[in-house]
Specification:
Keywords: 4Fe-4S, Cytoplasm, Iron, Iron-sulfur, Metal-binding, S-adenosyl-L-methionine, Transferase
Strand content: 15-25%
GO cellular component, one term: cytosol
Number of helices: 13
Number of strands: 18
Shape: globular
Radius of gyration: 23 Å
CATH architecture of one domain: 2-Layer Sandwich
CATH topology of one domain: Transcription Regulator spoIIAA
InterPro entries: Elp3/MiaA/NifB-like_rSAM, Methylthiotransferase, Methylthiotransferase_CS, Methylthiotransferase_N, Methylthiotransferase_N_sf, rSAM, rSAM_horseshoe, rSAM_sf
EC number: 2.8.4.3
Strand order of the largest sheet: 2-1-3-4-5
GO molecular function, one term: 4 iron, 4 sulfur cluster binding
Largest sheet: 5 strands, parallel
Length: 467
C-alpha cells in the first residue's frame, strides 16, 4: 500500500513529517510522489496562519471527492487549533496529536487497515508508555526518515510558554517541553556519521531549552557548547531557530563565536518596531532591548547575518506605529525578513479584538517593508562581488546550467554548473554579481567537498568575508 504525506507550515512540521514517514514505513507503507496514487494520505497541518489552514480545507475537500471512486484513508496531525480540530474531525478519517504518533499503526488497525509493524524500535508499541515517560518523550524516540541526505532538522523542544497575543502555538503544541539532551546529541552523532552538512536545531523558544526540566537538564548555552565540541573538525554548519529577544543573552553568542561549526547567522524575530504594539503583542521587550541584543551580536559575532520576522497590520496598528517599524527595519539592516500580514487565530488573545486594519492596507504595508528590506539587504550583497565565499550547494537552479546554494549566513547563491558538483557539496565561489537578496558567482576549480568527506582530509578555503 502507498502513502502520500503533505507537510504545511514551519520547519517543525517538516521535522514531524520525517518521523511520521518512519512510522508509516515501519507499518508496511511505501511512499509515493503523487497523491493520486496513494491509498493513505496524511497532512501535517498548520493553524498558525489562515492561509495554511485554508489549504487544509481545500485539500481535504478534493480527497473526500476521490473517496467516491476509490478506497482512500486520510489523516491529519501537526499544529491544529482546538476550533480547527472540531471542524476537521468529520472531514478526515483520523486526527491525532503528534505526541500520539507512536500509536498511529494501532489507530489504523482499529480503522480496519492491516499494518505490518515489526517493532524494531521501542516507541512503536501497542502498550502504554511507562509512567515516567511523556507522550513527547515517546514521540522523540521515533527515528526520523530524513527528507534530505545533507540537511537535517533536529527538534530540541516543543511548545511555548510566551503566549504572544497573536500566536496560536501554545494552543496547538502546548507548554514548553525540552527533549533530553542525550537524545539530541545522539541524533547529531548519527548525522555526523552520515556526512550531513547542515543541522538546524528546532524549538519555538530555543533560549529556554532545559528550564522546564530544572536541575535534570542542561541549559541552551551548555547544549550549544556540547554540540560545538561534538561537531568540531566536521565540515558542517549548525543553526537554530527561533530564539526570543527577551531571553537572548551574550552567553549564547559567545558559544557561537567559540566554535567554527556553529553558524554565524541569527534569526531574531522582531515582530514590530513600535513599543506600544510590542506591548499589545505581549512580547515582553521594547525596541531598546532588541537594540541591545543586536549590538551584542555585532560586537561578539562581527559579520554575522541577521534575519527576522515582522507582522504588519496587527490589530490597532496605526500608520505612525507602522512607520516606527519601517524605521526599525532601516536601523537594523536585516539580511532577510519574513513579513506576514496579520490574521487572527481562534484561541489566541488577539482573536477577541477587532481586526481593524483593512486588508488592502496590510498588503500595502507589506510591500513597503519589502522595499526597505531590498535596500538594506542589497547594501550588504552589493559589497560581496570580488570576494570568495564558502557555499553549500543545495540543488539545481531554475535557470538551466546553474546550481543553487547558500553561504554560512544563508545568503542564496546562484553558481554556474561545472557538471561535476553534487548537491550537498561545499564549494568555494568567486562572487561576480549581486541582487537585493542574493548573489551570483563562479565555482573555483577543485573546490568541491562532497558529502561524506571529512574536514581533516581537506583544507577548506575560507571566504574573504564570513557570511
Amino acid at each position: 500500500m502507498y502513502y502520500y504525506l503533505l507537510p504545511l507550515g514551519c520547519q517543525m512540521n517538516l521535522s514531524d513529517a520525517e518521523r511520521i514517514r518512519t512510522v508509516l514505513e515501519e507499518a508496511g507503507y511505501t511512499s509515493c510522489q503523487k497523491e493520486e496514487e496513494a491509498d493513505l494520505i496524511g497532512l501535517v497541518a498548520c493553524s498558525v496562519r489562515q492561509k495554511a489552514i485554508d489549504k487544509v480545507y481545500s485539500k481535504i475537500h478534493k480527497w473526500n471527492q476521490w473517496k467516491e471512486h476509490r478506497p482512500l484513508i486520510t489523516f491529519a496531525s501537526g499544529c491544529i487549533l482546538p476550533e480547527d480540530h472540531r471542524k476537521l474531525l468529520g472531514r478526515f478519517d483520523l486526527i491525532f496529536s503528534i505526541q500520539d504518533l507512536p500509536q498511529l499503526p494501532q489507530m489504523l488497525r482499529q480503522y480496519g487497515v492491516t499494518t505490518a509493524l515489526n517493532g524494531t524500535f521501542p516507541a512503536l508499541r501497542d502498550e502504554p508508555p511507562p509512567p515516567s515517560e511523556t507522550g513527547l518523550d515517546s514521540y522523540w524516540k521515533v527515528p526520523p526518515t530524513y527528507s534530505s541526505s545533507f540537511e537535517a532538522y533536529v527538534p530540541i523542544q516543543n511548545g511555548c510558554d510566551k503566549f504572544c497575543t497573536f500566536c496560536a502555538v501554545p494552543y496547538t503544541r502546548g507548554r514548553e517541553v525540552s527533549r533530553p539532551s542525550g537524545e539530541i546529541l545522539r541524533e547529531i552523532e548519527t548525522l555526523l556519521d552520515r556526512g550531513y552538512r547542515t543541522i538546524t536545531l528546532l524549538g519555538q523558544n530555543v533560549n529556554s531549552y532545559g528550564l522546564d526540566r530544572h536541575s535534570r537538564e542542561i541549559t541552551f548555552p551548555e547544549l550549544l557548547d556540547r554540540i560545538g565540541a561534538l561537531t568540531r573538525g566536521h565540515p558542517l554548519w549548525v543553526y537554530f531557530t527561533s530564539p526570543h529577544p527577551r531571553d537572548m543573552k551574550e552567553d549564547v553568542l559567545e558559544k557561537i563565536a567559540a566554535y567554527p561549526t556553529l553558524a554565524k547567522q541569527i534569526h531574531l524575530p522582531l515582530q514590530s518596531g513600535d513599543d506600544t504594539v510590542l506591548t499589545r503583542m505581549n512580547r515582553n521587550y521594547q525596541l531598546r532591548d532588541y537594540r541591545s541584543v543586536t549590538d551584542s551580536i555585532g560586537r561578539i559575532l562581527p559579520g554575522a547575518t541577521l534575519f527576522t520576522d515582522i507582522i504588519v497590520g496587527f490589530t490597532g496598528e496605526t500608520e505612525e506605529q507602522f512607520l516606527n517599524t519601517c524605521a526599525a527595519m532601516e536601523e537594523f539592516r536585516f539580511n532577510m525578513a519574513y513579513i506576514a500580514q496579520y490574521s487572527p487565530r481562534p484561541g489566541a488573545v488577539s482573536s477577541r479584538w477587532a481586526d481593524d486594519v483593512p486588508q488592502e492596507i496590510k498588503k500595502e504595508r507589506l510591500h513597503r517593508l519589502t522595499r526597505i528590506l531590498e535596500e538594506t539587504s542589497g547594501a550588504f550583497t552589493r559589497s560581496l562581488p570580488g570576494t570568495t565565499q564558502r557555499v553549500l550547494v543545495d540543488g539545481f537552479d531554475r535557470k538551466p546550467g546553474f546550481l543553487s546554494g547558500k553561504t554560512e549566513g544563508r545568503i542564496p547563491v546562484r553558481m554556474t554548473d561545472p557538471g561535476n558538483i553534487e548537491p550537498g557539496s561545499f564549494v568555494t565561489v568567486r562572487i561576480t554579481d549581486a541582487r537585493p537578496l542574493s548573489v551570483a558567482g563562479e565555482i573555483l576549480p577543485s573546490s568541491g567537498i562532497a558529502p561524506g568527506t571529512s574536514e581533516q582530509a581537506l583544507a577548506i578555503p575560507q571566504g574573504d568575508i564570513l557570511l
